[in-house]
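Ticket #131: bound-state structure for 8-OXO-2'-deoxyguanosine-5'-triphosphate.
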Amino acid sequence: MKKHIEVVAAIIRKDNKVFCAQRADKGELAKKWEFPGGKIEVGETHQQALIREIKEELNADIVVNDFLLTVNHEYQTFYLTMHCYECVVVSGELTINEHLDSKWLMIEEMYEYDFAQADMPVINHMLVDNK
Ligand SMILES: Nc1nc2c([nH]c(=O)n2[C@H]2C[C@H](O)[C@@H](COP(=O)(O)OP(=O)(O)OP(=O)(O)O)O2)c(=O)[nH]1
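RESOLUTION: The complex was predicted; output attached.
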């Protein structure tokens, strides 16, 4: 049976751009672009998981603002539930520790990058809402 994983993702804005990062070259989603975040640990709230993941992955402190949307997606090897939140950096520079690359992208530009499949509804949602 496929496993189910539940993750949180941070939509970090600056001007009219969003911080995007490219995953490492391993696993089913090798080298795909994504919004930073990761798996929720037992006992954590979504907010706590986001704050911890962004500190671990990007060395920065964030504040978690509005909930954006939840995406359910079936990959070849697992089921994903991903909760996306608007976040703001409050201290530290975003420095990639685990990703291959990162870019601040306008929403329209994201379609030129090879994003994880589960991210397409997130990108479409941001485009439609112009948010
Ligand atoms: N953070 C994040 N993960 C995403 C996005 N889109 C998407 O499909 N995912 C998937 C990729 C991973 O399978 C999972 C995130 O968990 P993770 O990054 O902690 O996964 P991982 O397997 O690399 O972590 P680990 O167990 O090796 O520590 O969600 C996204 O936009 N952001």
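RESOLUTION NOTES: The chain is about 20% helix and 45% strand.
TICKET STATUS: resolved
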